[in-house]
Inverse folding.
């Protein structure tokens, strides 16, 4: 069968679901922060808007705030926050140790999951 490709798999009745891509951002402040003081962690959830060919706010969805203490590899869930209508996330936590903060959004039936980059905070 030189030069021809066999397409038997195209005869399947299987369906394929395509999910929109999602993005999450994070910012923890103030940096540095005094030990046991309040740290504000913000972020934004967006997802692909195929009609606009851009990322748009993804409001009303829950995202989990996670913390990883400096010098470790394990992430710990801290709390879950629901994004407002513009996709913004905001919460406060007590700063107890140097470490990294991130938002994690799990996938839905129409949108894939997203994890923000980590934001390192120095606790003095």
């Amino acid at each position: 069968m030189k030069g021809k490709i066999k397409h038997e798999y195209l005869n399947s009745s299987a369906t394929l679901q395509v999910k929109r891509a999602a993005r999450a951002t994070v910012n923890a402040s103030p940096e540095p922060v005094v030990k046991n003081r309040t740290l504000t962690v913000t972020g934004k959830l967006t997802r692909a808007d195929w009609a606009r060919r851009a990322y748009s706010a993804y409001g009303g969805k829950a995202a989990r705030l996670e913390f990883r203490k400096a010098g470790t590899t394990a992430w710990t869930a801290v709390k879950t926050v629901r994004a407002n209508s513009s996709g913004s996330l905001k919460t406060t936590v007590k700063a107890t140790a140097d470490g990294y903060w991130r938002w994690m959004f799990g996938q839905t039936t129409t949108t894939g999951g997203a994890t923000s980059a980590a934001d390192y905070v120095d606790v003095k």
Observations:
- The mean pLDDT is 92.
